[in-house]
């Protein structure tokens, strides 16, 4: 919506030749125009967080007054900033794809950043590789720096971001907050442990195509494919339960910092139903942001 309150212009007689006047010849007068005296028509083009628009303002009474062109500037609502967490096999990867497809957010995963930095041979990547080659965990300060730089990227600032599976500890969350990164929403996918174990243990990889199958939920198309499927070494019931235990500990620590903005989603439903729950929460968040923007503009 355009707002044109507290503006004033010199009144130009309708008897004057309109071709002799342009918007540049208009000068302020002492007679105020308010939004109640104006009617609008506009065309907008969006640039970054601001929208330049050309508005045609016409004073309704009296009918012989002139029309004017006014240039204004209206802000767009802030982009979404979302964190999502879920245990192994909770369907987090699928939901991240659906979220980014609909909302255009920049998908950021710490693991992807690590691999990209190592492949690029950056200073952060070299340091991370030294630790990984020794079988050690990459220190928080290295990973947090990578995440911070990606969150500060122009596309992340413009489109908003979806931080996938990070932070995983309270220290990482605190570090992000100190850098000025606070999510609007923390989405937690909740799936009962017995379902998670079943999902993980039944997973199989096709080494030829890289496609992931599940013996129960997504079986291979042919006997030939079934014969060559492999199982990850840690996709056993014993090891997945250890991973789940670690995940739950980490999530509890992080939730304490984001409890006021956490949305818990039933991740045991179909992927469409899970996304419907997330979509509702994100739609409400967008509406709140637009509402705040409208209040400020008014």
TrEMBL record:
Its main location: plastid. It comes from Nicotiana tabacum. This is adenylate kinase. It catalyses: AMP + ATP = 2 ADP. Monomer. Transmembrane segments: none annotated. Its EC number is 2.7.4.3. Pfam families: ADK. The gene is LOC107784862. GO terms for cellular component: chloroplast; cytoplasm. HAMAP family: Adenylate_kinase_Adk. CDD domains: ADK (cd01428). It is found in: Plastid, Chloroplast. It is an enzyme of class 2 (transferase). Belongs to the adenylate kinase family.
């Amino acid at each position: 919506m355009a707002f044109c309150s507290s503006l004033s212009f010199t009144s130009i007689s309708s008897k004057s030749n309109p071709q002799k006047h342009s918007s540049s010849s208009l000068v302020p007068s002492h007679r105020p125009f308010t939004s109640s005296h104006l009617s609008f028509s506009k065309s907008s083009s969006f640039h970054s967080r601001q929208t330049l628009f050309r508005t045609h303002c016409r004073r309704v009474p009296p009918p012989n007054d002139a029309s004017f062109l006014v240039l204004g500037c209206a802000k767009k609502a802030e982009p979404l900033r979302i964190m999502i967490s879920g245990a192994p096999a909770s369907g987090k990867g699928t939901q991240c794809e659906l979220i980014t497809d609909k909302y255009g957010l920049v998908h950021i995963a710490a693991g992807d950043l690590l691999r990209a930095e190592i492949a690029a041979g950056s200073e952060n990547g070299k340091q991370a590789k030294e630790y990984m080659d020794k079988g050690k965990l990459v220190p928080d300060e290295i990973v947090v720096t990578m995440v911070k730089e990606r969150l500060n990227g122009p596309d992340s600032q413009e489109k908003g971001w979806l931080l996938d599976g990070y932070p995983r500890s309270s220290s990482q969350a605190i570090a992000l907050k100190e850098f000025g990164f606070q999510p609007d929403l923390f989405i937690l996918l909740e799936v009962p442990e017995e379902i998670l174990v079943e999902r993980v243990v039944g997973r199989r990889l096709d080494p030829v195509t890289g496609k992931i199958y599940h013996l129960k939920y997504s079986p291979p198309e042919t006997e030939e494919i079934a014969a060559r499927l492999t199982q990850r070494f840690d996709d056993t019931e014993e090891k997945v339960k250890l991973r789940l235990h670690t995940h739950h500990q980490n999530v509890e620590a992080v939730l304490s910092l984001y409890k006021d903005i956490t949305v818990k989603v039933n991740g045991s439903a179909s992927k469409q139903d899970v996304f419907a729950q997330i979509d509702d929460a994100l739609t409400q968040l967008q509406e709140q942001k637009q509402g705040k923007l409208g209040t400020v503009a008014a």
